[in-house]
Amino acid sequence: MYRSLQTRLKRTPILYRIAIGNAIIIAAGALLGTFLTRFLTNRTTTLWHFVLFASIGILISLVLNFFIIRAALHPLQQLRQVVRRIQAGEAEVAQLALEDTDPDIHRLTIALNSLISQLKGSNQQLRLLSERAINAQEEERKRIARSLHDDTGQSLSTLMINLERLDNHLPGDNREIKNRLHAIKEMAAEGLACLRDIIYDLRPAILDDLGLIPAIRWYAQTNLEGAGIQVELDFQDEQLSLPQALTTTMFRITQEGVNNIIRHSQARKVCISLGKQANDVYLRIKDDGHGFDPSQISAEAFENQHWGLVGMQERIELVGGRLSINSDAVHGTSLLVTAPLIKAEADADE
Q1: Among residues 10, 53, 128, 208, which one has the fewest Cβ atoms lying within 10 Å of its Cβ?
Q2: Measured between alpha carbons, how far is residue 328 from residues 288, 289, 302 in Å?
Q3: Region 307-322: what's the mean pLDDT?
Q4: Could you read off the pLDDT of 249-270 as tens digits, one per residue?
């Protein structure tokens, strides 16, 4: 009987629960007031007695009202705790199913469950589309870099060779034509150098031929030292071998980090560390620049169409990793990327 009444009360709407509780308090207060009135009228009382009994009655009413309202609003507290856990990533959607509760709260939980499921499905679709877009981008970069190297690069190299041969066959007294040929050769050499820089930015051959560590060393030293920034490299294992997807991810994050340091940090020294820790691989890029506010940069990224940090975050999440940034004006910026080797190896096997 008591359990049936308790279940029925749980399924009563919150408004009715509060109304019932207040009705009980009002009825109890009326009965108690009537009893005290009769009790006090039959005895000699003072003002102090009336104040004392009135205070006790008010206190009891407030305490009872507090406990009744707390019990009535208990489903909302449960709902708030579950939603908070979901926001923190600690709860699954199934934990949002509150049974034997207020019918309005029950309908709300069903709506939230549906919304969370839709968001989860949309996020999975976006993640797959993002992964396909990044993979397609890398393949297109490879194709363009190979095409530029094999076609345009070879054409410029052939042009320079033919210009050199033509210069050797010209009479020595024809200085005007020789000077023009030298100018054309210099232009061709500059074009070839620019073309190589573009090819290396698109997809450096050293990454595919020698691996991640030589590619990071080459890119960091070439760009940072070229900008007058001191570079310190700390590689735990020079023979570190990673799956292809993880290798590309770590190099692209390094590339973006180095470019951001050159463009924005005004740093004088940069330290890049790469190694393994337990079942994870880590990459740390630290500089002594003037720093920035990561939360503000992330909030402004969509408005200003700046996708550097957003791209880093997206890339590392696709391989199951995490990215953390600590930055201030005194200590500079420290970017730490960690990714599980087990997930990357399993993806590579698939």
Answers
A1: 128
A2: 10, 9, 22
A3: 83
A4: 999 999 989 998 998 888 999 9
How many residues are present in the chain? 350
Q: Could you tell me which of 109, 99, 108 has the C-alpha nearest to residue 7? A: 99
Residues 322 and 316: beta-carbon distance below 8 Å: yes
| Distance between CA atoms of residues 47 and 32, nearest Å | 19
Report the amino acid identity of residue 78: Q
Q: What is the largest CA-CA distance in the chain?
A: 140
Distances from the Cα of 287 to the Cα of 128, 226, 298, 332, angstroms: 33, 16, 19, 6
Q: Show the tokens assigned to 262.
A: 């050159």
**CA 29 from chain center: how many Å?**
57
Fold (CATH) for 209-349: Heat Shock Protein 90 (3.30.565)
pLDDT score recorded for residue 155: 87
pLDDT tens digits, residue range 31-88? Answer: 766 666 666 665 555 666 666 666 776 777 777 777 777 776 776 777 777 777 666 6
Which ranges of the chain would DSSP assign to H, the alpha helix? 2-10, 14-41, 47-72, 74-87, 103-147, 154-169, 175-202, 205-209, 212-220, 226, 244-260, 294-304, 308-318, 341-349
Judge whether 77 and 101 are in contact, CB under 8 Å: no
Rounded CA separation 77/21 (Å): 18
C-alpha to C-alpha distance for 333 and 329, rounded to whole angstroms: 8
Domain spans in the chain, listed from the N-terminal domain onward? 2-112, 140-201, 209-349
